[in-house]
């Protein structure tokens, strides 16, 4: 399919043909959901920890004699039913990550990209460059393009002035093409790709 290419000034600078196998799929929400779950689980620290009864420091001697008291039979005060005792079935430190095949992960990315095209929230910019590292100038350019909440994916080496100018703009994330991922794609309303980023994607998914 063909899609318009714009400059940061908001002017049309031509057209570009993009691959239907990457941007023209019918988005499958179940595939995207599994990928989001995979990414979120992988980011969890897993440092939650509670003390079980074996972790409680207290005397291990019997509280009272076994028979003749009219009370329930108990042993150590570290049992969960006592104040200060260990927690029964509490959380333990663990890794929450689970596996997804490389083929599935690449499929999920293509479905997420196709979803942006279907929603008409994909914008292609010829170059991510700025003459000076002034945030106000770049913000005015984004206003002309209608970019208010976006993920911008550029070449592997981003322009230095552009990086400095964009970092103070709220709700705008900038990543090199190596960092493209499904979760960040869906966090922002608009996806802005440079021509160089699209060429790398199409080479990657050949």
The number of E-state strands comes to 6
Distance between the termini: 16 Å
Give the CA-based shape. elongated
Domains (count):
2
Q: According to CATH, what is the topology of the largest domain?
A: Ribosomal Protein L4, Chain: A
Description:
The protein has 206 residues and is α/β, with parallel strands linked by helices. It has 2 domains: 2-45 and 97-204, Ribosomal protein L4/L1 (Ribosomal Protein L4, Chain: A, 3-Layer(aba) Sandwich); 50-90, no CATH class. The protein contains 7 helices and 6 strands, in the order ββαααβαβαβαβα. The protein has helices at 20-23, 29-43, 102-118, 135-145, 160-166, 182-187, 195-204; strands at 2-6, 12-17, 122-125, 150-154, 172-176, 190-194. The longest helix has 17 residues, at 102-118.
SSE inventory with pairings:
Layout: E1 2-6, E2 12-17, H1 20-23, H2 29-43, H3 102-118, E3 122-125, H4 135-145, E4 150-154, H5 160-166, E5 172-176, H6 182-187, E6 190-194, H7 195-204
Parallel strand pairs: 1-3, 3-6, 4-5, 4-6
Antiparallel strand pairs: 1-2
Summarize the structure.
By secondary structure, the protein is α/β, with parallel strands linked by helices. 34% of the residues lie in helices and 15% in strands. The protein contains seven helices and six strands.
């Amino acid at each position: 399919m063909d899609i318009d290419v714009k400059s940061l000034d908001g002017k049309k600078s031509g057209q570009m043909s993009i691959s239907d196998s990457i941007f023209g799929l019918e988005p499958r929400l179940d595939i995207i959901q599994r990928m989001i779950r995979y990414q979120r689980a992988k980011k969890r620290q897993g440092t939650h920890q509670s003390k079980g009864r074996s972790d409680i420091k207290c005397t291990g001697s019997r509280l009272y004699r076994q028979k003749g008291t009219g009370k329930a039979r108990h042993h150590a005060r570290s049992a969960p039913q006592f104040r200060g005792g260990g927690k029964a079935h509490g959380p333990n430190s663990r890794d929450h990550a689970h596996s997804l095949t490389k083929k599935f992960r690449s499929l999920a990315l293509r479905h997420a990209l196709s979803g942006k095209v279907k929603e008409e929230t994909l914008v292609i910019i010829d170059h991510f460059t700025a003459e000076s590292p002034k945030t106000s100038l770049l913000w005015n350019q984004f206003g002309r393009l209608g970019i208010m909440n976006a993920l911008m994916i550029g070449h592997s080496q981003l322009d230095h002035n552009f990086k400095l100018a964009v970092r103070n703009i709220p709700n705008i994330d900038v990543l090199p093409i190596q960092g493209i991922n499904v979760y960040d794609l869906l966090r922002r309303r608009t996806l802005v790709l440079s021509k160089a980023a699209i060429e790398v994607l199409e080479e990657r998914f050949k």
